[in-house]
Amino acid sequence: MSGIPTSLSLTPAHVAQVHRAIADGGPGPGAVLHSDADYEEWVGRMIRSHPSPGTPIMLFAYGSLIWRPEIEYVGETVGVARGWHRSFCFRMIRFRGTPEQPGLMMALDRGGQCRGVLYELPDDDIEGQFTKLFRREFTYKPPNSMPRWIKVETASGPVSALAFVMNRASPLYAGSLSLEAVAEVLACACGHVGSGAEYLLNTVTHLEARGIRDRNLWRLQALVAECIEHNSRAVHANEVASA
User: Fold this and answer.
1) How wide is the angle at C-alpha 171 spanned by C-alphas 166 and 175, nearest 5°?
2) Key word Lyase present in the record (predicted)?
3) Active-site residue among 137, 153, 208, 226?
């Protein structure tokens, strides 16, 4: 670990430079949204397909569900999902981006492995919990983040867990991008709920608090900080030149 920085380069001060007040432009022309009946069908389908009936329902969180779960849970542990990795492969034209300046959000994409947090959900209202999750995680048709049962390894053995994985058939799938390309986007993009830089900082901070360090995210946060500082210097130079 020698020579590896132990503190984040990306700070709230960097995030403040990217944030700006933006009105919600809505779904946009041609967008098709999931209906109440669609969500009900998804909930029923995922409950019926649970691979281990009679066992607790587990939710695998790898990004914002860690720092903003918005559901009830009765237990938490760390687990590893093999065959999946965190990737900023979800292009955002709303929420944390705009059509004019799209952002990027993380999703679970195929390949590699991902260390994240497993939440055990209470068994008294699974339908209600799933409805909250699904309405939060996917809005448009086709869904960008697909609910799926995956295997997650824990210290007590493997478990089946609900996860939201990237739908590569979605028109918003950005594919595999370099960390440098992602950093340039996150250093600028902002939508009505906040910026990509804020999303990254929250995720890395809460992963670190649980002893989870994703080396790609750690490198990315440093690159985003560098990009924001570069952009700030460029703006200042232009202001001085035009004064």
Assistant:
1) 55
2) yes
3) 137
CATH of the domain at 101: 3.10.490.10
What is d(CA 83, CA 18) in angstroms, rounded to the nearest whole number?
33
Scan for tokens 């960390």, then name that residue: 179
Examine residue 1 and state whether it is found in any structural domain, yes or no.
no
- CA pair distance 4, 13, nearest whole angstrom: 22
Looking at the 3D structure of the chain, how many domains does it have?
1
Q: Which domain holds residue 43?
A: 12-242
* DSSP-based three-state secondary structure for 98: coil
Residue 184 lies in a domain: yes
In a domain, residue 48? The reply is yes
Element (H, E) at 136: helix 126-137
Q: Let me know how long the chain is.
A: 243
The answer as to whether 4 is a domain residue is no
Convert the pLDDT of each residue in 66-102 to its tens digit: 999 989 999 999 999 999 999 999 999 999 999 999 9
Residue 78 CB-density burial (10 A; 0-12 exposed, 13-18 middle, 19+ buried): middle
Q: What is the pLDDT of residues 1-25, one digit of tens each?
A: 444 557 999 999 999 999 999 999 9
Distances (CA, A) of 92 to 104, 130, 146, 190: 5, 23, 16, 10
137 catalytic residue (yes or no)? yes
